[in-house]
Amino acid sequence: MKTIMPLGDRVLVKPLGAGEDKKNKAGIIIPDTIGKEKPERGKVVAVGEGRWNEDGDGLVPMRVKVGQTVIFSKYSPDEIKIEGEEYFILKEESILAVIK
């Protein structure tokens, strides 16, 4: 397997629940395309080293860590495929929350 290391303040995320249709209580299937404007969830696979501070003399450390489950805005990530698997690369500022 290839190793991907995000640069700067970017995060590599494996989407959770992508491509799954859901059923409501009445048994009606709701396609995945309906909820495209809702935040997405994913598991952090890799993180960059952080971003440089405004003075350019030090790195601001990343707050998210590998293995955490996060919620992020649907329109913020860049989608990539690696060996047939879908991943997202997004800036740390696009992460809305960490699920504990």
Automatic annotation (TrEMBL):
Molecular-function GO term, any one: protein-folding chaperone binding
Cellular component aspect of the GO annotation: cytoplasm
Pfam family, one: Cpn10
Intracellular or extracellular location(s): Cytoplasm
Keyword terms, alphabetized: Chaperone, Cytoplasm
Domain of life: Bacteria
Major localisation: cytoplasm
Annotated function: Together with the chaperonin GroEL, plays an essential role in assisting protein folding. The GroEL-GroES system forms a nano-cage that allows encapsulation of the non-native substrate proteins and provides a physical environment optimized to promote and accelerate protein folding. GroES binds to the apical surface of the GroEL ring, thereby capping the opening of the GroEL channel.
Family, similarity comment: Belongs to the GroES chaperonin family.
HAMAP family in alphabetical order: CH10
NCBIfam families tied to this protein: PRK00364.2-2 (NF001531), PRK00364.2-4 (NF001533)
Subunit structure: Heptamer of 7 subunits arranged in a ring. Interacts with the chaperonin GroEL.
Protein name in the entry: Co-chaperonin GroES
Taxonomy of the source species: Bacteria, Candidatus Nomuraibacteriota
